[in-house]
Amino acid sequence: MKTVNGIPPVMPGIFTLPPYDDGPPALLGGFCPACSAYYFPRPKYCRTCLGPVEEARVGSEGTVYSFTVVRKKAPLGLPLPYSVGYVDLKETGLRIFCLLDPAALEKLCIGLPVRLAVNTMGRDINGSPCLRPYFTPASAKGERHSGKGKVEV
Ligand SMILES: [Zn+2]
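# zinc ion complex -> structure
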């Protein structure tokens, strides 16, 4: 499995890894060319035509559709409190369930523009530190967005 400075992704193949020389962090899902349908996560076969589904970037930006803040029993070493919710991806229209930036809880609201970030956060199922994708307010500046310590200005 590819790692960044020895830190593996929480799950391989669901988001792009740093360095982000060819664009911002993006979620990786699937695309069925026959149906022009996107999926996240990527299924083996298209749910409509049962044809093969190609790997595709499905989104880097979106808006918060709904969210909640969890204040007890954070799993997998996540910070407490943390937030999960649904984000509507701008690029593909998919509505996905995802982690939201635990450092931006007070900024979260329905309709908030967000962008994908990737950082070392929490632990994987084996208890090791891992890279985790989450959505953060799109207007936030100066926050790290890669596991390599790259700083966005
Ligand atoms: Zn299809």
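# post-check
DSSP finds no helices and eight strands in the chain.
The first strand starts at residue 27 and ends at 32.
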